[in-house]
Amino acid sequence: MSFRKRNVGLSGSSSQAQSTGSEDRDTWTPGVRPSPLDGRPTTSTGASSLDDLLGHAGLALGNSILIEEDGTTEFGTTLLRYFAAEGVVQGHKVHVVGVGESWGKELPGVAASAGEDKSRVKSSTEAEKERMKIAWRYEHLGEFGAGPSSARAPPAVNRSPPANFPGEKNPTIPTPFCHTFDLTKRLTVTDPKALNFIPVRPVPVDKSPFEQILQTFREQLVTFPKTTLHRLVIPSLLSPALYPPHASSPQHVLQFLHSLRAMLRQFPTQIVAMISLPLMLYPRTTGLTAWMELLSDGIIELSPFPHSFDSGPPTTTGGAAAVQEEKPQGMVKVHRLPVFSEKGGGGMPSDDLVFILSRRKFTIKPFNLPPVEGDSEAQRGEGEGKPTNVDIDF
């Protein structure tokens, strides 16, 4: 008979499994976390409302989003700037195609939280009040090194945890998954290698202008380590201001999107892409746009309202509380979601959505029609389930 303990192997295996799990959690790339649905790695788009809309609380790695915008506005460009700014703050490699370095200077800056502003103001106010309590002639007596009487007292030690202000990195405070950006501020890019601008060089008509873009992007993937996350940003695809006329040929642009999709599947944990397309030049009724949508993982359409809508009544939330909000600028239509559409559908939002571009932020919210003018009961939230004196005959 053997008197060897039977629980040695189990305890050793459990401790080894726990250490392995902790190592896996520590090896996550900054700005990447597992999806709450199936655990696949996801990253933030920079807009928390868009992250919630995608279903996985972010954009799953190895996928692309096509932002379609109708009209001559640039609401889609704002989303792309959010996407690029989040990558810069998280330390990702951001590749911008077709535009110059001036586009990167318009990235929104990180907004300071209300708690940080209050703590900073409160600390300065308390220090000023404490200073005013002491008479001016005794002000320097308690300071360290001011005189022989004060030399015996050691200097006071500040034991409060350091605050993590915007633009300062504190290892004791974890980096948030999605930052809050302020459109009135501009992001200061300290690392010159954080943004890589890939120009569209002129080529003969019989050659594709996208070949050099793919070649440059593939070289960047090989140069950096495999733990680096690359964000590909393509603003205003096929715009005549950025691309030559023959770039809109199906044999060029569809081959480019097909090659990009193959790279996303080849490097599923290293690449995410966001592309904007002007629907005014390439409507959804054309065959070219239909094929471009088939080669994209997610499709979101922004339909701005006419200017006459701005003169309408303010919107309300909940239907009961007449709380005035900022007026929406247009509707948001979700035609396809990453991962969900490949699995046969599901996860699509059931409510009508609108986007609101205020002075400081871009948000996506459910849309509720305001009550009819003159219906005072609906505006006060009354009349729902309230008995009436009128008998109803069946």
Q: Provide the spatial order of strands within the biggest beta sheet.
A: 8-5-9-10-4-11-12-13-14
Question: Could you name the ranges where pLDDT drops below 50 across 5 or more consecutive residues?
Answer: 8-25, 141-168, 316-323
Largest sheet: 9 strands, mixed
| Computed Rg | 28 Å
Q: Which structural class fits the helix and strand makeup?
A: alpha/beta
SSE pattern, N- to C-terminal? HEEHEEHEHEHEEHEHEHEEEEH
Residues in helices, as a percent range? 25-40%
How many runs of DSSP E, i.e. beta strands? 14
Specify the number of helices: 9
Question: What report would you give on this structure?
Answer:
It is a single chain. The chain is built from nine helices and 14 strands. Helices cover 27% and strands 18% of the residues. The strands form three sheets. Strands 8-5-9-10-4-11-12-13-14 form a nine-stranded mixed β-sheet, with helices on both faces. The chain has a three-stranded antiparallel β-sheet with strand order 1-2-3, with no helix packed on it.
